[in-house]
Amino acid sequence: MKIIVDAMGSDQRPTPDTQGAVDAANEYGIEITLVGDETRVRAALSRLSQVPPSVSVLHAAQEIEMREHPALAVKEKKDSSIVVGIEQLKRGNADAFVSMGNTGATLAASVLYLQRLKGVHRPALGALFPTPQGPSLLIDVGANTDCKPEWLEQFAIMGDAYMRATLGLEQPRVALLANGEEDTKGNQTVQAAHALLRERARATKLNFIGNVEGKDIAAHLADVIVADGFAGNIALKTAEGVSKMLNDLIRREIKRNPLTMAGGALAMPAFNKVKKILDYTEYGGAPLLGVNGVVIIGHGRSNAVAVKNAIRVAKRSVESNILEIIRRGVAPSA
What we know:
Layout: E1 2-6, H1 15-28, E2 31-36, H2 38-46, E3 55-59, H3 70-76, H4 81-90, E4 96-99, H5 103-114, E5 124-129, E6 136-139, H6 149-167, E7 173-177, H7 188-203, E8 207-212, H8 214-218, E9 224-226, H9 229-254, H10 258-278, E10 286-289, E11 294-297, H11 304-319, H12 322-330
Parallel strand pairs: 1-2, 1-4, 2-3, 4-11, 6-9, 7-8, 7-9
Antiparallel strand pairs: 5-6, 5-10, 10-11
């Protein structure tokens, strides 16, 4: 298996990207091609030990910054690490593409070069939401801010396929994100999507359980939570902000006086366990579902661990043949 990694994706590029790629190549026994400024990438590799021969470098002279307009950047920067990497995937020179870079640009390049799977209305970006009971998939989290009911129905199908294939869930619980649990809650789009999913659940094995509220995401009441990209992105970013606030608040209060510092030291193993459960780096990246290729997108602030785990997600997606599973899933509703 060969996976293309955008070496110029993370905020601290190319250090975490190259370190994560080398760690993944060593641990998973796969080929990795790092795409980016060859001089900078090789300099980063030279600072690492145990770089296997399965790690190669493909030069790309340009990079797309986070602040750039995604569609324009993809059209104007043909020699960027994102475009070059996606083109390699399109040509069949790799099995997957992983980037910690500009989400919109990765989405735009994927749709432009890879195109959508047959029958898919719109690709959707999923994000694994950590909970003590295991992760839930929130989909969409930013690719489609305005949606039609049939798009939300397909997001549910693709999310169900992803959780079955990559996490091994036999019958994922699928729900719609709404402002109430009752069937009549939500805007007109959500209510119409609710009716479509009820009908699909009767006709197929889709385990649609109805609506969930924002508070239910962290309670792990569903394995797949479906939303338009606007609501999904707000839910995700709000949760990330609350998590960071609580972490900072606990640290500040522990350091307030010697007594709390001593108690904090005793409780540190528990704090570390909670941190590991809620740490986004454990899940690596978010799958872009619905395009004709395996594409994983991570946080710009990713460290080497997050990059390595994003590559693991890509590997697992390829091994589970996620593209064919989604093809079969959306075919009846195409």
